[in-house]
Amino acid sequence: MPIINKFIEIQTSESINIYNITPQIQDLIDSTAIKNGQVLVFSRHTTTALAINENEERLLEDVKVFLRKLAPESASYLHNDLHLRIVPPDEPMNAHSHLMAMILSTSEVIPIVEGKLGLGTYQSVLFFELDGPRKRTVSCQISGDYS
Asked: At the top level of its lineage, which domain of life is listed (predicted)?
C-alpha cells in the first residue's frame, strides 16, 4: 500500500480564524491515483488545530467567540512571563493560543472512498488559526489502494 506525503500551505489573515481546507485536501487526493484508503491531516504548529464540523459562517463565528471566552488573551498566564524564559526577541505572548489548541485536535483521519473524501453531508475539514496572522503548513499523508 503506497503512502504519499503532501502539504498544504496556508497564509492566515487574522489572530483567530477558521479556514475550510476540504477542497485543498481533495485536490491532493485527486493528484494521486489512490481510490480507497485514508488521509491523515496533521497541523504542524502548537497554536493551530483541526476539526471536522459544519462550515457555516454563523457557527464559525460562535466557535471563535467560545474560544475567546474559554482562553481570553487578556488573562494572566505564566507562559506569557517572557522575562522569566529564554525566548527569541519576537516571541509573542500567546499562552491563550496554546490553550485553545490543546482543547481542540492537531489531526484528523478521513476515509477515502472511490477517490473522494468520505465526509458526511455537512462535514468539512476546518483549520483553526489561533495565533495569526502567520504562514502555516498542514501535512497530509495519503495511503490506500489504486483500485
From this structure: Bacteria
Extended beta strands in 88-134, E state:
107-113, 116-117, 124-129
Task: DSSP letter for 16, please.
Answer: S
Grouping H, G, I as helix, E, B as strand and the rest as coil, residue 8 is: strand
**End-to-end alpha carbon distance in the chain:** 11
Distance CA 43, CA 47 (A): 9
CB distance 145 to 37 below 8 Å: yes
> What global pTM score does this model have?
0.96
pLDDT band with cut points at 50, 70 and 90 for residue 147: confident
Q: How far apart are CA 80 and CA 95, in angstroms?
A: 6
List helix spans (H) across the chain: 22-30, 57-70, 95-103
Question: Cα-flanking dihedrals φ and ψ of residue 68, to 5°?
Answer: -65, -35
Amino acid at 82: L
Q: Under the phi-then-psi rule, with left for phi > 0, alpha for psi from -120 to 50, and beta for the rest, what region is 46?
A: alpha
77-116 pLDDT per residue, tens: 999 999 999 999 989 999 999 999 999 999 999 999 999 9
